[in-house]
Amino acid sequence: MCLGNICRSPLAEAALRLEAERIGLAVRVDSAGTGNWHAGEPPDPRAQATAKAHGADISGLRARQVTSADFDRFTYVLALDRDNLATLARIAPTRHTARLALLMDMVPGRHGEPVADPYFGDDAGFEQTWTDVAEAARFIAASLTGA
Predict the structure, then answer these.
(1) 3-class DSSP state for residue 70?
(2) More confident site: 145 or 130
(3) Cα–Cα distance between 100 and 89 in angstroms, integer?
(4) Which residues in 108-122 are b (16+ Cβ under 10 Å) and which e?
(5) Known catalytic membership, residue 117
(6) What digits encode the pLDDT tens for the residues 106-134?
(7) How far is residue 97's CA from residue 74's CA, in Å, rounded to a whole number?
(8) Which residues pair with 100 in a beta bridge?
């Protein structure tokens, strides 16, 4: 989960989908934002270009805001930075089944690290975001398969 669901979280969704497909893992993945100001919009064109360069088409994704149902529908609800994690903790239903954490907590040696928001930067920022979320995707997929 990120702020508007047009940059980081669609890239994270794409990276995990690609990794799951690569290893033959059936997994349910969805991205959302903690805010609603981009609801219904496609991912940022720079995010789309970055994903496409790595073999993922995210042009059909549409931004949405996280819902209370997400906290029971998914095993993990992963935030891209501490501010979004705090928001998720605040809005989560009192009783929920999802584990809340930072995405990079899934990567050994990167606990507590955010995924930088590339929105106000250049294309290089989107590529760095992809590098981070793809690394996390590999570790998440591996943990789900017991590898």
Answers:
(1) helix
(2) 130
(3) 7
(4) eebeebbbebbbeee
(5) yes
(6) 999 999 999 999 999 999 999 999 999 99
(7) 8
(8) 77
Tell me which residue has tokens 């940022």: 44
2 is catalytic: yes
User: What's the rounded Cα separation, in Å, for the pair 62 and 51?
Assistant: 15
Asked if 28 contacts 17 with a C-beta cutoff of 8 angstroms, the reply is no
Task: Give the pLDDT of residue 147.
Answer: 65
Whole-angstrom distance, CA of residue 23 vs CA of residue 100? 25
Query: Residues 44, 70, 117, 132: which is the catalytic one?
Result: 117
Question: Which residue out of 7, 8, 70, 105 is catalytically annotated?
Answer: 8
The structural domains of the chain, ordered by start, are 8-145 (3.40.50.2300)
pTM score, whole prediction: 0.95
Check if 7 is active-site: no
CA distances from 84 to 11, 19, 20, 22, 57 (A): 16, 24, 25, 29, 25
Count of beta carbons in the 10 Å neighbourhood of residue 4: 23
pLDDT digits 0-9 by tens, 2-19: 789 999 999 999 999 999
Q: What is the pLDDT of residues 49-103, one digit of tens each?
A: 999 999 999 999 999 999 999 999 999 999 999 999 999 999 999 999 999 999 9
